[in-house]
Every structure is written in C-alpha cells, then in structure tokens.
C-alpha cells in the first residue's frame, strides 16, 4: 500500500493521500435486534449495563464488547469488557452454586524410559551421523576418524540453516568423518565442558585433540576444506 485515492462527494475531485497503512471501520450499528424486548437497550440499540459492570437489566445476562460501548468502540476496551463479563459470569454462577469445574484427567505416562542399554544397542559406529552425549563419548574415545560435533538448540534459527549445509558435507566424506549433534538444552553439561557460549557451534576433533571451533554459519566451502585436510 502506498496511498489512498480520495474522491470528494460534492465535486468529484480526486486526490491521493500518501499512507502506508489503513484502519477501516465497517460500521457502528449494534447487532442487538435479537435482544429487543428482552434486555433493556438505548435508543440506538446498544445494551444498557450498570456503570462499571457488565450487568444488564436481566439477572444472569452480561454484555461485553462494542454492543454495550457506544462511546469508545475500540478493540482494547472491547477485550477488557469481555474479561469483565467473563469474571461476572463466574461470580454469578458461584453465588448460585451453579459453577462446575472441569479438570483434564492426567494422562498416564506410557513412555518407556531410555536406558543406557537401549542407547548402546542403538549405537553403530559404522554410521557417519549420530546424536547425543553417549555417541559423542563413544566416538571421542574409539573413532579413528575426524570427529565433527555440532552444538544446537531448539530455539536457534541459524541452526536450522546450518544443519542441511553441514549434513551435505558430511555425506561427501561419510567414510572419513563421524558427525554428532548435541542439543545443549538436553545435554547442558556437555556444552559447559566444551565452553560453548552460543549456537550453532561446530568443533572438530582428531585423536582426542580439538583442531578447531567454528561459531555461527559459514560457507559450505570452509567446512569442506577443513574436513578434507584432516580426513
């Protein structure tokens, strides 16, 4: 949007008003006809409520929003009156002993706890890509290959960019490198020991010696050259 074309009703003259945004009101006629003769309305059709409340002329009936606000008619005040009406309903039902509370039944946790045996059985050193601290521990001590460790976190946007980039490079050297992804929220002690200050971060090891730490997202070429030189 760059502007609004304005046409004068009397003369038909047109002009352009430069603007980047537009708030359009669709009208102020209260939709209260279904309440006529049942709830007290004013001459314009707005529901009358007692001052500073949501109470109408009928006990147990509460009004909220623009239909009872002919002065301000704003989204913020409408939302506030909605909250007021909801609380009023709750108090009314409580006073009449009609309030019924529903509690969601607690689902049984049928998830099987992951044991060390499960992890060991799922670990296969012949695979190039792994995840978690157990895999990191095994590969760090047993792998003769270059070890690439990617530190990530669920809320890290750049991590989602780096993963496919690094993944393709690992695929190119899958016989010469082992890759492990560490989620620092799941394994914070690993990140602390590695002195990881932010994600994404990649560390390269060979024969238990750290070769390099790369923070952030780099070009694919940089990862490829480092792996190629140390495979």
TrEMBL record:
Q: List, for all copies, the residue spans of the domain called Thioredoxin.
A: 105-231
What's a BP term from Gene Ontology annotated to this protein?
Answer: cellular response to toxic substance
Coiled coil among keywords: no
Q: Which GO terms describe its molecular function?
A: oxidoreductase activity
- Which keywords does this Swiss-Prot/TrEMBL entry list? Flavoprotein, Oxidoreductase
| UniProt key word Flavoprotein | yes
Name the Gene3D superfamilies for this protein: FAD/NAD(P)-binding domain, Glutaredoxin
Family assignment from sequence similarity: Belongs to the class-II pyridine nucleotide-disulfide oxidoreductase family.
Instruction: From the Swiss-Prot or TrEMBL record, give the protein name.
Output: Thioredoxin reductase
Task: State the organism of origin.
Answer: Solanum tuberosum
Lineage of this protein's species? Eukaryota, Viridiplantae, Streptophyta, Embryophyta, Tracheophyta
């Amino acid at each position: 949007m760059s502007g609004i074309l304005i046409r004068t009703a009397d003369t038909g003259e047109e002009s352009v008003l430069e603007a980047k945004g537009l708030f359009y009101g669709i009208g102020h006629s209260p939709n209260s006809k279904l309440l006529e003769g049942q709830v007290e309305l004013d001459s314009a059709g707005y529901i009358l409520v007692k001052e500073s409340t949501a109470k109408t002329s009928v006990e147990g009936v509460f009004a909220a929003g623009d239909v009872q606000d002919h002065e301000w008619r704003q989204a913020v005040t409408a939302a506030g009156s909605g909250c007021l009406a909801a609380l009023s309903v709750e108090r009314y039902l409580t006073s009449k002993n009609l309030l019924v509370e529903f509690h969601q039944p607690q689902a049984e946790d049928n998830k099987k706890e992951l044991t060390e045996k499960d992890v060991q059985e799922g670990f296969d050193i012949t695979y190039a890509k792994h995840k978690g601290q157990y895999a990191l521990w095994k590969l760090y001590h047993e792998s003769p290959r270059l070890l690439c460790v990617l530190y990530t976190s669920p809320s890290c946007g750049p991590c989602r960019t780096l993963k496919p980039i690094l993944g393709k490079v690992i695929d190119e050297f899958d016989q010469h490198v082992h890759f492990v992804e560490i989620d620092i929220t799941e394994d914070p002690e690993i990140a602390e020991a590695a002195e990881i200050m932010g994600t994404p971060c990649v560390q390269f090891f060979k024969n238990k010696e750290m070769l390099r730490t790369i923070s952030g997202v780099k070009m694919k070429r940089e990862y490829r050259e480092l792996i190629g030189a140390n495979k």
